[in-house]
Description:
With 291 residues, the protein is mostly beta strands. Helix content is 0%, strand content 59%. The protein has strands at residues 5-10, 21-27, 30-36, 43-49, 56-64, 67-73, 79-85, 94-101, 107-117, 126-136, 140-148, 156-164, 170-179, 186-189, 198-205, 211-219, 224-227, 236-238, 243-250, 255-264, 267-279, 284-288. The strands form four sheets. A nine-stranded mixed β-barrel has the order 1-3-2-9-8-7-6-5-4. Strands 18-19-20-21-22 form a five-stranded antiparallel β-sheet, with no helix packed on it. A four-stranded antiparallel β-sheet has the order 10-11-12-13, with no helix packed on it.
Amino acid sequence: xxxxxxxxxxxxxxxxxxxxxxxxxxxxxxxxxxxxxxxxxxxxxxxxxxxxxxxxxxxxxxxxxxxxxxxxxxxxxxxxxxxxxxxxxxxxxxxxxxxxxxxxxxxxxxxxxxxxxxxxxxxxxxxxxxxxxxxxxxxxxxxxxxxxxxxxxxxxxxxxxxxxxxxxxxxxxxxxxxxxxxxxxxxxxxxxxxxxxxxxxxxxxxxxxxxxxxxxxxxxxxxxxxxxxxxxxxxxxxxxxxxxxxxxxxxxxxxxxxxxxxxxxxxxxxxxxxxxxxxxxxxxxxxxxxx
Length: 291
């Protein structure tokens, strides 16, 4: 990604299939890569990264008729630049557009060529395509490794690569088996409350709002990340109280489990657990024994 500006836009079909397409090319003289994906209602998301610092910038936009417009915002949420693609065709081998700075009206041309498309279907097979993520650490950025097996309709996350910013040096590669969300598979946070930013990878969605992720902690001695072993449903991390909270909902919202953990020697230690079930007789939730 050196000397490269990388852009991602999000596109979903009407039944929420990721239809991502990867492009490479230029904005003016600056090399770029682009992955497109638009929602069925025309809403679009994008992330672009300047190669000088490799910090992803999330931008949102809209595909209206045949024009795709993406907005870059400043630190207070005000639009400061647009990327506009007229006559946008996701099936085309090449797309062209304009980058416009709104304050000065300065414009630069965008010219891109399709590299690959993340297609779906039981008979399709491909391996090791890479997608940059919408978040990064202070000195590192991430790319998902995704693969598609025959007789499996969807692609899966097969791994993650961790790169050093500016030099694009590959620091670490980790094999995974996770559900693909595209550019939002990775999140960052301080998961063991040691003051060091780490990362997690979305693993799976389940019935209702329940999800799971894999959490990776940093070892300052080796300079590498390791899988924490943290397990739970829809975990959230409170940096103020230094507690991990878990919530599991089932049975159309009639059953809830909540748990609180502390971290000791990089292990989750249960503090308390509460289970509630809805009682039709009293028309309210009541505490029950947790399994």
